[in-house]
Every structure is written in structure tokens, then in C-alpha cells.
Amino acid sequence: MTASVPLRPRMLVIGDVMTDVIVRPEGPLVVGSDRRAKIGLYPGGSGCNQAAWLAHLGIPVAFAGRVGRRDLAEQEQALRDVGVVPVLAADDTRATGMLIVLLSEGGERSFLTDRGANDGLCADDLPFSMLNQIDLVHVSGYALFTPGPRAAVMALMAVARARGITVTVDPASVGFLEEVGPSNFLGWTSDASIIFPNAEEAACLTGTRNEAEQIRFLTARYDLAVIKRGAAGAEAANQSIRLKAPAPVVDVKDTTGAGDAFLAGFLAARFAGKALDICLNRGVAAGAAATTTLGGRPTESTPLPLGWGDLSNTGGSPV
């Protein structure tokens, strides 16, 4: 979806801007020698992907982040091309972040990450004035794993909550969660009302793989916990209701950005005032659609998830 005249943003996403180098080896890696592979460059960054999917689903959204100065104009245009209002700061010393994605035959991924300019995000990049007329602030957890960006983002989150603006967060990376400590992350995100972990992140944050115990732990700290469980679908719960939705069977090419699309589908439905079961099903549909193409963002030719207009007639099953 291309927005030549963007609507006034109602959501603000804060997170990383990355260039994704996606590598699809034609077989197992050969240590010390060659393996043929398909290699492509794609725009990425979890927060950027989330904003792009929100815009693709019709939500007026802005994205705030930091890039290398030489890439500023290109990165701004890439966001405008998918309907996102860019609020990007330029870094004079760091290059735009870069991510190498190694894809297995089944579409699963391993990452090598150079965060680059993302680690320079600061308070000057996130003035409180950007909260004017915003209804929801979503924070990608990647913006919380480095001290400088974390201080700036937490300050904005606190002001947003004080103004009655909904704050949501996704933990983003189990590797970084383990590095900084789950209890620290829980403290840093105390101003958020909704958390969106995947299954591994939920296990890390709660210290258990028991799904019911994960729900009890997270809903004691957040108003709503929405857990992405991959091929098993997803679930959403507060202290009074727990819903599950199965994942549809699709031809998986690349799972990069699937969680970001899920989050966008869920929040787009919630923004429209839909019931929790519909939000969950729309998230699952968007996440599944994202796995059928390479890269983490939709393009102007990316169709809406199959059955998107009919999901109001389906619901997650209470458990």
C-alpha cells in the first residue's frame, strides 16, 4: 500500500532500522569451503517491519528510529513507500544497522546482528512532542537492550502512560533477553499494558515452559499477554479470559517478519475496536501471510491476508 499523502499518524512505533541480508544455502554449510546460496538484500528491522505492516493494514502510523546519515533519504523513502510517516534521526559516526539471516530449508532463521546507528538512539531523537495526537505507542524490545536508547525510550513510555496513551511492547529477541536479564526487562517495560512475546521469549521471561504458568505470570504484570507460538498458532489472555487461535497451513518460504506482521494484525484489529478473539485471528492471518514471501515487510503488491475481511465471523477458542 503506497500512501502519497499519509494520514495523521495515530500510532507511533519505536525500534530498529536494519538492512537484512537473507542467505538461503543450497544445503548444509561446508566449514572452510563453499556452498551455493541465494542471497538478497531487504529492508528490515523489527520495529520498521511492524510499522510497515500496520500501514499495509490501513493504520495511520509513524516510525521513530536512527540510521546512518548517508542512508537517511533512502530509508525515509522506503518507509513512505509503504505508507509509514518516517521520524528518523541521522547518525554521523555509525552506519545503518545490518542483519544477516541464515535460512534453513524449512524457513527457520539464525541471525547475526550489527545494530549500528540503532545504538545511538537518544532523547533528542524522541521528543515528547511526537506523542501529540497519538493513541498508541509500540516499542520494539530491541530499543531497550542498550543503555542510551533504553533511557530515552523509557522516558517516552512513562510520559505516554501519564497522558493516557496505550503503550505496548514486544521482547524482540530471546538472545538479548538472556543477555540483559529477564527481570530487568520486566522492570523496564512496567509502563506497557500489552506484551507480545513469542514462545521462547515467554519461557525466558517467566522461567517456565508451562503455558498456563506463563499466562499467569505475564497477566499479573501486564493487562494483556499475547503469545506467538509459531506453527501452534497464538494465544491472548488477561486475568479473566484466555483464547487460542490455530495457525493456518501455508507454504512457508521465510519466517522473517512473521511475528511483526502478527503484531500489526492484532493491533490493527484492536485499534478498530474488535473483540479479543477477532484481534487474535487477524494477527494469526497476517503472520501466516508474511511467511509466504521473502523479507520482513510488505510491498505495494503484497495482498492483504487471505480472508481478512471475513475474520469478524471467526473466533479463538477459550481455554
Which features would summarize this protein structure in a list?
319 residues; ten-stranded mixed sheet; 24% strand; 14 strands; alpha/beta; disordered C terminus
Placed side by side, the strands forming the largest sheet appear as: 5-4-1-8-9-10-11-12-13-14
Q: At the fourth CATH level, what is the homologous superfamily? A: Ribokinase
How many β-strand stretches? 14
End-to-end C-alpha gap: 36 Å
Q: Can you give the mean pLDDT?
A: 88
Domain unit count: 1
Q: Give the helix level as a range of percent.
A: 25-40%
What structural category do the secondary elements indicate? alpha/beta
CATH class: Alpha Beta
Strand content: 15-25%
Task: Assign the CATH architecture.
Answer: 3-Layer(aba) Sandwich
Q: Order of helices and strands, N to C?
A: EEEHEHEEEEHEHHEHHEEEHHE
By DSSP (H or I, 4+ residues per run), the number of helices equals 9
Short description:
This protein has 319 residues and is of the alpha/beta class. The protein is 30% helix and 24% strand.
What does it look like?
By secondary structure, this protein is of the alpha/beta class. The protein has one domain: 3-Layer(aba) Sandwich (UDP-N-acetylmuramoyl-L-alanine:D-glutamate ligase), CATH 3.40.1190. Helices cover 30% and strands 24% of the residues. The chain is built from nine helices and 14 strands. Strands 5-4-1-8-9-10-11-12-13-14 form a ten-stranded mixed β-sheet, with helices on both faces. Helix 1 crosses helix 8, helix 6 crosses helix 7 and helix 8 runs antiparallel to helix 9. It starts with 10 loop residues before the first strand and ends with a strand. The N terminus and C terminus are likely disordered.
